[in-house]
């Protein structure tokens, strides 16, 4: 009895402090008196309603609990829905309906693809082939993984890429010789994959929904149509520049404990040979996933397919996996629901901030601070705002709340609208601070190699690196490529 009592862990005071900090932030914001209106340069007032203030309160509690992981991240998401309903911020039917938003189901279907690749053995084949090419040096394994991840996001959604690459990384890490134990190599491999998936996804309109939505939004405001290849022309050097910068970043902050894994290439070849020829399930899985990716990619070029939502297309793969008995009920039960719930809550708080007007109120208050600034300072202030917001809410929403305000102020400062659009799109694709910022972040977390606090900690220098490179793009790279960054005098 005494031994059992002695074995009991001490009370976790740190967890209690952070839990109560989140509750205190919620209570302070929710119950404090009405805050003043935000006023844009045209004199338009944006009132922060009690519901909007409540949305900010929920946002602060969720952010605190997510960063310090006081409860499982999926459970924090449930609190987002509960607080909205209990404190009359949004009706239950609205707040909880967001938990099954098409974006959440897209993530579910992407994770299913990853499970299929793992179960059939396709992942191991891909991992062994890649290791045969990149060799035994851990620095080259980092680079190989990052390049493959970035390249794939040019033709398919970064969520699907992360779900496909994730089991491949598990297979690679299994050969590192440290079991499931967290290591610097493991952290760099999985966090790096998540970061690079974001960097690669900015290059084309196929990498994520944010690009197409932002271009449509831009056309509506500025009445200028930006084409598929024009976007890629300006984004290619930035996306790939960040991919190689992130490789250097992880080689410094997460330098693998081993410079090389002796005999890895031979071991990979041996394991690949042992697998024999492709099985029926592997072929079926490859055909189904290949067909789904092809159809989703064609949506950008075939008008008839544009009307069909990509979520319905990718969910067809989930159904077909069961139709052809590649997956069974046990596999459905193995889905990481903590990750699905995480994104469900992220969608709910994102829509909550958007629909209550809280997000626009924050955007106007932030951007008017720079309404008399130098053009470069103004563009970087927009980029910073979008980067911070995209860690908490959908990147599409982060762009949608900041672009209209920025484009109103821009002419007064002589700033060209193109540079605002592209700078916003760059940072919106790379939320390095919170798991909820992008699906690849949450998928990487499932590896167990890092905590939410570690992800946040390394995300700070990575975000600074992103801001510096975005600044270089605005000031040097894009002007050299022919992008106007300032308006002609009198224009």
TrEMBL record:
Membrane topology: Multi-pass membrane protein
GO MF annotations in UniProt: phosphate transmembrane transporter activity
Domain of life: Bacteria
Broad class of the protein's primary localization: membrane
Compartments reported by the entry: Membrane
A GO CC term assigned to this protein in UniProt: plasma membrane
Keyword terms of this UniProt record: Membrane, Transmembrane, Transmembrane helix
TM regions (residue ranges): 16-36, 56-83, 104-123, 143-176, 188-213, 233-254, 283-305, 339-357, 363-385, 392-413, 419-443, 455-478
InterPro entries: CitT-rel, SLC13A/DASS
Family, per entry: Belongs to the SLC13A/DASS transporter (TC 2.A.47) family. DIT1 subfamily.
Protein's name according to its UniProt entry: Sodium/sulphate symporter
């Amino acid at each position: 009895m005494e031994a059992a009592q002695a074995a009991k862990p001490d009370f976790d005071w740190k967890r209690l402090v952070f839990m109560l900090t989140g509750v205190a932030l919620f209570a302070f914001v929710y119950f404090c008196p009405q805050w003043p209106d935000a006023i844009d340069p045209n004199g338009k007032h944006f009132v922060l309603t009690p519901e909007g203030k409540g949305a900010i309160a929920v946002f602060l509690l969720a952010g605190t609990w997510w960063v310090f992981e006081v409860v499982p991240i999926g459970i924090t998401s449930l609190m987002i829905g509960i607080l909205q309903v209990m404190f009359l911020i949004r009706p239950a039917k609205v707040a909880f309906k967001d938990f099954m938003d098409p974006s959440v189901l897209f993530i579910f279907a992407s994770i299913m693809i990853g499970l299929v690749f793992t179960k059939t053995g396709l992942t191991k084949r891909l991992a062994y082939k890649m290791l045969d090419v990149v060799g035994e040096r851990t620095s080259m394994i980092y680079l190989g993984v990052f390049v493959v991840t970035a390249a794939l996001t040019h033709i398919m959604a970064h969520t699907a890429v992360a779900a496909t690459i994730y089991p491949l990384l598990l297979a690679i890490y299994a050969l590192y010789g440290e079991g499931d134990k967290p290591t610097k190599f493991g952290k760099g491999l999985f966090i790096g994959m998540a970061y690079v998936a974001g960097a690669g996804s900015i290059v084309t309109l196929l990498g994520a929904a944010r690009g197409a939505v932002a271009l449509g939004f831009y056309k509506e405001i500025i009445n200028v149509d930006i084409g598929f290849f024009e976007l890629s022309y300006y984004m290619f050097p930035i996306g790939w520049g960040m991919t190689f910068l992130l490789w250097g970043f992880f080689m410094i902050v997460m330098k693998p404990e081993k410079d090389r894994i002796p005999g890895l290439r031979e071991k990979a070849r041996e394991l690949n040979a042992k697998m024999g020829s492709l099985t029926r399930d592997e072929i079926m899985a490859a055909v189904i996933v290949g067909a789904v990716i092809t159809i989703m990619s064609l949506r950008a070029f075939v008008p008839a397919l544009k009307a069909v939502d990509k979520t319905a297309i990718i969910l067809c793969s989930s159904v077909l996996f069961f139709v052809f008995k590649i997956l069974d009920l046990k596999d459905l039960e193995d889905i990481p629901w903590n990750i699905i719930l995480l994104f469900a809550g992220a969608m709910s708080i994102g829509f909550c901030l958007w629909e209550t007007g809280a997000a626009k109120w924050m955007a106007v208050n932030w951007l008017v601070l720079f309404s008399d600034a130098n053009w470069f300072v103004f563009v970087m202030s927009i980029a910073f705002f979008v980067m911070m917001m995209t860690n908490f809410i959908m990147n599409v929403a982060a762009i949608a709340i900041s672009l209209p305000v920025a484009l109103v102020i821009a002419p007064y400062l002589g700033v060209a609208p193109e540079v605002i659009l592209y700078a916003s799109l760059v940072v919106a694709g790379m939320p390095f601070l919170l798991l909820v910022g992008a699906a690849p972040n949450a998928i990487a977390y499932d590896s167990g190699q890092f905590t939410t606090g570690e992800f946040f900690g390394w995300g700070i220098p990575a975000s600074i690196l992103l801001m510096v490179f975005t600044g270089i793009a605005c000031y040097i790279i894009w002007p050299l490529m022919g992008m106007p960054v300032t308006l002609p005098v009198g224009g």
